[in-house]
Specification:
By secondary structure, the chain is mainly α. The chain has helices at residues 2-9, 13-26, 31-43, 47-73, 76-89, 98-110, 114-127, 133-145, 148-161, 166-178.
Length: 180
Amino acid sequence: RAHGRAALALHENDLAIEVSRLNVELYPNSWRVYRDLAEAYHAAGDAAEGERLSAMADEMRNRESAIMEYVRSGAYDEARRIILRAHATNPDLQLLTPSRIGPYFDETLMSGDSDKALELCRIWALANPGTVGPYFSMARVYRSQGNIEQLRATYERILEIEPEGRSADTARRALEELNR
């Protein structure tokens, strides 16, 4: 994002658009990159595209904020409704950024409320299908509860989602440790 914003500050609008488009490809579920791209289009004089992208960014930000408000208030069914409604049109959409739900999860788990922390993980996993982050957090909860059966199942789920790479290696090591 910094490169696109720097190009924009230097009035290199075409470069700002190009870099911001790349950011959208890299982070298609981040409202911030859509906002950056909208600003680049506005600066380049394409107000219509800038407005369209601004509206998308606002919709994404507002949806994420609404989900988090429901989660924080314990209205989990309402959060699920928003998630399911969004996924009805785009099932791969990731609706919660780790920077929003992660700290709240950490705070909840540290407070000792493992049931609530587990519910947060379930909503996080529902909101972000195909990502392993919520499951690693879920594993932390199960480990804190001493629930080895669910801990094992969670690491196996991580391997189903992401069978190769660093996350898979971490899950495999955790399973090996559990089997000792």
